[in-house]
Design a protein that fits this description.
Shape: globular
Order of helices and strands: EHEHEHHEHHH
Number of helices: 7
Strand order of the largest sheet: 1-2-3-4
Radius of gyration: 16 Å
Number of strands: 4
Distance between the termini: 26 Å
Strand content: 5-15%
Length: about 160
């Protein structure tokens, strides 16, 4: 899977271009990547809090470019921002598999819960030193959460 940034050919706020010429170039590149047999994830890392609607709109725009997976990394530092993460909305509304990750105070919690709420791909590290600012869980702790929460949104919702 090859990662194509959402603002490739036109660096833009929130790492999403709205420039039709840049989008056409992205679609052409995505087509060439698909011709090789590889899949494409289109990603952005705004690294700021965003509304659920803004996150959904951005990932829908990525879907329209013909990618296989869409990805966004936002921030959840407050309980309000955490409540606005929109992962369940993305599960309900997107047709494409998605990666939604958060950094910030609630980032690690979101990464544990995301895999239960419809996130298609998540990330973990082999080892890390405990650090409040580091949000990627270890493989061991991610596996423990997955095994000990026997629930997944796909089991109950379509």
């Amino acid at each position: 899977m090859i990662d194509v940034m959402g603002d490739l050919y036109d660096p833009s706020p929130n790492e999403i271009t709205r420039n039709p010429e840049a989008i056409a170039k992205q679609k052409q590149l995505i087509g060439k990547i698909h011709e090789t047999g590889a899949q494409v994830v289109m990603s952005s890392h705004p690294n700021k809090a965003m509304s659920a609607e803004a996150i959904l709109e951005q990932l829908r725009a990525f879907e329209q470019r013909g990618v296989d997976v869409v990805k966004i990394v936002t921030v959840a530092d407050t309980d309000e921002e955490f409540a606005e993460t929109s992962t369940m909305l993305l599960h309900r509304e997107l047709k494409t598999p998605f990666i939604h990750l958060c950094n910030g105070r609630f980032g690690r919690l979101h990464r544990y819960l995301g895999m239960k709420l419809g996130v298609s791909i998540t990330f973990a590290v082999h080892d890390f030193e405990a650090d409040i600012g580091f949000t990627q869980p270890s493989v061991r702790s991610m596996k423990t959460v997955a095994e000990n929460i026997p629930w997944h949104i796909g089991t109950f919702c379509n």
